[in-house]
Each structure stands twice: as C-alpha cells, then as structure tokens.
Amino acid sequence: MIKKKMEEENRDKGMSKVVKTISFIIAIPIIIFGLYVILHGHLTPGGGFPGGAIIATLLALFLVAFGSYTVKSSHKELLSSLESLALVSFILLAFFGLGSTFFHNFLANTANIFGKSISYGVNNGYLPTGGTIPLMNIAVGFEVFAALSLVVLIMYTGQSGGGK
Amino acid sequence: MNLILHAPILAIAIPLLGALATPLLSKLGKTIRNLWIILSLLFTEFLVLILTYDVISNGIRAYTLGAKFPTDTIPTANFIPVRIILGVDAFSVFMALTSVTIVLIASIYSLKFIKERTKSKYYTLLLLLTAAMVGLVFTGDLFSMFVFLELLSISSGVLVAFYFHKGEVVEAAFKYIVISAIGGLMVLLAIGLLYGHYDLLNIAALANTLTFSFSDKVALVLLISAFAMKCGAVPLHMWVPDAYGEAPASISAVLVVASQASLYALFRISFTLFSALPTIEIVAWSIIILGVLSMFIGVVMAILQSDIKRLMAYHAISQTGYMLLGIGVGLAVIGNTNALNSFGVTAMEGGIFHIINHAIYKGLLFLTAGAIIYRVGTKDLNKMSGLAHKMPFTTIFFLIGALAIAGLPPFNGFVSKLMIYESVFRFNPLLSIIAMLVSILTLASFVKVFYSAFMGPKSKEYNKIREVPKTMIIAMLVLALLTLLLGLFPNIVVDNIINPAAHALIDQLKYVGGIL
Amino acid sequence: MINYFPFLAVLILIIMGLSAIIFKKNLIKIIIGISIIGSSVNLFLISLGYRSTGVAPIFTNAPKLEMVLPTPQALTLTNIVIDLALIAFMLSLVALVYKHYKSLDIRDRRLKG
Fold it and tell me: Is residue A113 situated within a structural domain?
C-alpha cells in the first residue's frame, strides 16, 4: 500500500495544459482583487483577514492545477519566514504608539503617510486616511496569506508538520 | 516613559513579540534564540513583580488600549466604556505572578529536556501561552477574555501533542481540544446573551447595570459549566489524565497553571459580576459540591494508577477540588457580613493560597517525573525500582513535593489546607471531614509511589543511570526552595498578597470604582 | 413570532451539533458537529444586532438611515478566525490518528468517554 501511494504521487503531474494556462491568467486578477480588499479595509468591508484568504486561494489553485510535484517543500521555509515577519511588524506597529498608549493611532490626522484628516460626516471614501489601520491591515493580510498557504501545503503533502 | 503606567499591556505584549520573533531569530543561531527567550520571560517577570508592588499599595490599575492617555476609560462623548480596557487588581496580579514564575522555571528546565530540532517551535508556543495567560487574567472585558481563552487552549493543545509520533499522544490532544472547543463556544454563547441584553461587554460596566433576569441566569450557568469543563472539575474531567499524562513533563507543569487561569475566570465571573444575585447560595453550593466530588473521585482514581504521570494528573483534579471548596464557601457567605468576617475571608484566602501552592508543588512533582522519564525511559511504576541510589537529587525533590501535597508541615500545603479545614469546619463540619479524609488518601498514594519508584533494590537494567543535567536540577531546586519558604514563613505571602486578593474579589464596588 | 425565527434556528442547530458530537462514532463527524455549533453561535451573534429598518454599517456613502449594529460583526469575525484555527488543528490531529491506527472509529481506542 505504501508503494502504490508513492507511485501515485510521482504521477501527480497536475491537470491538463488548458487548466495550467488559465490558472496563470487568472492569478493576476485574484492578486489585484485581494490587494484591493486588504488596502480598503478601513472604508469598505473586508480588511486583513478576508483579503489574505483571497490571496491564499492562489496556492490552493496552484496545488490542484500543477500537482504537488511542482510545488516544492522549500516554499515552506519562505512562507514561514514571511508569516513571522508580518506578525512582528504588526506588533511593532502597535508598540510605536506607546507614547500615549499601546495601539494608539499615531498616524491619524498628521501629515504622514495615511494621515490625511477629513471632515466629519458621510462622504465618499478617501484612501489615505485612517492612520495605522491600513498598515496593520497589510501586515495581517500577508500573514494570513502565508499562514493559510502553509496550512494547505502541509495538509496536502503530509509532511512531518502536525497541528498549527 | 513611565514603565509602571504601561506595565499591564507590556506584560502581554512582550511575550507575544518574543513568540513571534523566535522563528526568525532561530535562523541566526542557537544561543541568540535561547538568550532572547530567557530575556523576554525575565522581563515579563520583572514587569509583573513591579505591578504587584504597585497594585498592592495603590489599588486597581486600569489601562485603555488606544486612547490618549491610559486611564481614559470613559470618553467624553459617551457614558459607557468603548475601548478594550485592562483592569488589574490584586487577584489578577497574583495569578499572573504564579503563571509567569512557573513558565519561567519550566522553560529553564526545558533547555535540556526538549530535543534541539524542535526547540524553536516549542518555545514559540510556550511564549504564546504565557501571553495568553497573562492576557486572560489582566483583561477587564468579557470578549477579550474569550479570545485569550481560545488562544490558551489552542497553544496548550499543540504543546500537549508535541510528541506526535506516538499514537496515544495524538488521541489525548484530540480529547483535550474537543472539550476546550465546546467550552469556548459555550462561553461565546453566554457572552452573546449578555451583550444582547445590555449592549455592554466591559466587566465593570456590566457589574453596575446587571439586573438578574432569566437570560442572565442562563448565561451564568453556561459560563460556570464551561469554565469548570476547562479546569478539570469532576463531571467533565476525562481529558485531564490523558492530557497531563501524555504531554512532555514541563508542559504538564504549565498545563496546571493554564487550568488555574480558567479557575480565575470562573471566580471573576461569579464574584464580580454576580455577587449581588439574590439566590447566590445555589451557585455557591453547586461550586462546593463540584469541589467535593473532584477531591474525592480524583484521589480514589489516583490510587489505582500505575503510570506516574496519570497518577499525578488525578491528584491535580483532587487539588482543584480543594480550591473550589475554599472559594465556594466564601461565595456562600458573601451576603452575610458577620459570617464573612469570621470565616469567609479565611476560606477564600485558603483557596487562593492553595492556587499558588498547588502550582509550585505540582510543578515540582511533574518536573521530577520528567527527570525520571528522561533518564529511565519508562512511565510504568511497576517497572522502576531502586532509583534512590542513582538519582539522589531527584529523590529529595520528589520527597519534598509529596510531603507538600499531603499537607505535612513545614511545607506550604499544610498552611493552605489548615486554613481551608478551619473555615470550612465552621461552615459545615461534614465537608471538612471529607477534606481531611482526602488528604490522608493523598498521602497514602504518594507513599506507594515513593516506595515503588525509589526504594527497594536496584534493578539490573538501570546500572547506567546518571543524575539529570544541571539546568533541570536548578529548576527543580528553585521550586523546592519555594515550597519550603512558603511553608516556613507563610505570613509574608498571606498578609501582603493573598489578603488583598481575597478582599479584591469580595469587594465588587472597589473594582467598578477603580475602572470607571 | 417571525421576528424570533433566527433564534429558533440557532437553537435547532445547537441541538443538532451537540447530538452529532455525543452520538456519532466517526471522528470526522464529531469535528463536523463542532463546526455546526460554531456556525450557529456566529448566526446568533449577528442576529443580535439586527434592526428591522437598518442598512449595512458602512460609513462610505451611507444613506441616511439607521444602521445594523456593527459590534457583533466584529465579534463574529474574530470567532470565525478562531474556529478556523481550531478545526484546522483538529483535522490534522485526525490525519495523524489515521496514520497511526488506520481507523477513525472512536470505539477502537479509549477515546472520548
């Protein structure tokens, strides 16, 4: 039974040529849509977590279309480092507000990046507002992408990583 | 930057930062990572210590996340607290002190105990667990209590399943995580019920405006049963022997403190939120009955075990029963000021002191069991014998731990058990007699363990056994010294730390006034 | 009575999920039961904030009407993430159990008293 499994995995070259081409083509709109959802998290529904989940479907798509033979396990180290880096930047962003309190929005209403101040009331959404919130959304988005891709990859290829 | 002002949130954020940066730092080298971990834990311990000193002298400290200055709890535009608020009072800081100390000692112990290849994952999870525990006891907000509770159960679940190449370990972790998940969902349901009625999630604000309608009582029942599930009280204790028995030994020591964190949540809910409930006696009596059942069934099942860690796990169930009994008695007399002043406060002090005592001596016992397994390689009591000749330090530490758990002077178990016996006797003599009986049975089972594992002739296979490495001995030595110190000079701890903690629980108005 | 329909659905789903956890013998079905209870608690949280004349609580270009409560939506989002992590962990544990014992029946070993 173990031998049959190994043969099957060697033959897992993915699906047909049409699917491979289409998956390349559709990857670009998925990335752009995912980045749109992440970046506009303070104006429209979405934000870090759903946007990251959208981009993580790319890895699942590549796994199914290309077979586990092509998606190598060296990607696991890269994804793990990306996840840690994004999480550390999230916590450091929270630390920077420590002048008044933790998580304080130190970029709101200043002239820095993402710091434009707007008048009160209902309006069309302006992108460069919101202070630290879009930056945290970006960090969370990358982290969710890395984490979910890692989970899908480990579950599919069945390596020695158990939980988390 | 005023360190004391920001200490509550830093005590949560520093382990979190440590946990998330450990995978990155482990690429740079082994010593940098070990240094980073020990430094983060030491800094957290320092923060909790200065916070203890500050809260005992000055009262409750509140901290608002994201406001202009830390005590800005009610913004000028509204009348209810809007942001996430941390509320640190004497009971919270006491639990945080026990937890961080035990985690620090366990992580020093694991420097040699865990194999090198898996160390960075282990330490990441351990630091996450510390952050979750400190967050759970510091928060003043029901929903963040739920979030930290789930983080605690997931990270401890992964740590229980650490040796996942063995089959029984995976089953034990599965049982643990299923029960934790159901408990967590029940907590969320209760939080939803309370939120839907009052539009408030802050504990202090809820304590002000709670009217005890039917849905609130349903929420209370759900919360109490969910937290009792998580700390191993008797009707739902099936996960305790498996999880404690199959986890690595230092993780079993940390699991003790993690279960006590859910005990903290139980008491916080019943005292601060619901202590003005007219029928609080029913709640108190159900807590007392759970405690007595846990004590009795725990110790009876412990005598029958032949695996050293499962035996200690059953004892953990029975000691949790002591804590429930002590504080349940305090809850039962909370309306009656006369009885409260005479024995209620002593009962609660006994229960709370038992929390830290249990963490210390149960941690010591689990670490010695780990030392035995590290050198000998088996967990079965029937197969070991005569280890006292080869491992003298471990023998002494085990003896200290066993005497402490049985309640003999001059160790710390004696002091807290005496307080519980005296005060419970004046409440209801039958409960006190059951407690003493359980204590005798505890002593009996540990005599059995000591005799079969350490005394007796040397077994022939164990000629090559040496003593365990020095870092493990240092960790066990610290715990043994703490046991002795707390037993010989209990007044220092009881008057300065435990008494304010008990009063902080009883005095609901002080909590509310300190935060709002 | 029609106003209370979401809460009735929550109650029915919780009973179904609990009976799946208690009475079923396959590990995967137990996990599905936990997932059902999680979804029902999410439904309960969202339906707490419903106002019958409300619109979605988005500030951009908002019409001048009352909005549905946004706080339970934040609670629900957090709960979805937590349940995701729990179920991913439980599924990988079940995969490991299968690798060790070749069977997913809880009667074979001493699982789940």
Answer: yes
Is the CB of B77 inside 8 Å of chain A's CB atoms?
no
CA distance C13 to chain A (A): 25
Best residue in C28, C61, C64 for a mutation probing chain A (most A CBs within 10 Å): C61
Which residues lie below 8 Å from residue A143, measured CB to CB, with a gap of 6+?
A48, A52, A82, A83, A86, A87, A90
Cα(A84)–Cα(B21) distance, integer angstroms? 7
**Rounded to whole angstroms, what are the CA distances from B351 to A158, B93, B354?**
47, 16, 5
Number of separate domains in chain A? 1
- Tell me how far the alpha carbon of residue B192 is from its chain's centroid: 26
Give the domain C2-111 fold. Helix Hairpins (1.10.287)
Domains of chain B by residue range = 3-515
Residue B449 in tokens? 């363990």
Task: Give how far the C-alpha of residue B303 lies from the chain's centroid of Cα atoms, to the nearest Å.
Answer: 24
Is residue A99 a contact partner of residue A106, using CB atoms and an 8 Å limit? yes
Report the distance separating Cα C37 and Cα B151, nearest Å: 19
Amino acid at B119: K
Is the Cβ pair A155, C81 closer than 8 Å? Answer: no
With respect to residue A163, please indicate whether it lies within any of the assigned structural domains.
no
Domain that holds residue A108: 2-157
Tokens 């390689």 — which residue? B377
What are the 10-residue block averages of pLDDT along chain B, 516 residues in total? 71 84 78 83 84 77 66 58 75 87 86 75 88 88 89 90 79 88 92 84 77 81 88 82 84 88 86 71 84 87 81 87 85 70 78 86 85 73 65 79 79 82 82 86 83 68 64 76 76 74 71 68
Interface test with A, best of C31, C46, C59, C80 (most A CBs within 10 A): C59
Chain C residues closer than 8 Å to A124 by CB:
60-61
Element (H, E) at B87: strand B85-88
SS3 B495: helix
Transcribe B148-201 into DSSP letters: HHHHHHHHHHHHHTTSTTSHHHHHHHHHHHHHHHHHHHHHHHHHHHHHHHHS--
pTM, two decimals, is: 0.88
- Which ipTM value was assigned to this complex? 0.89
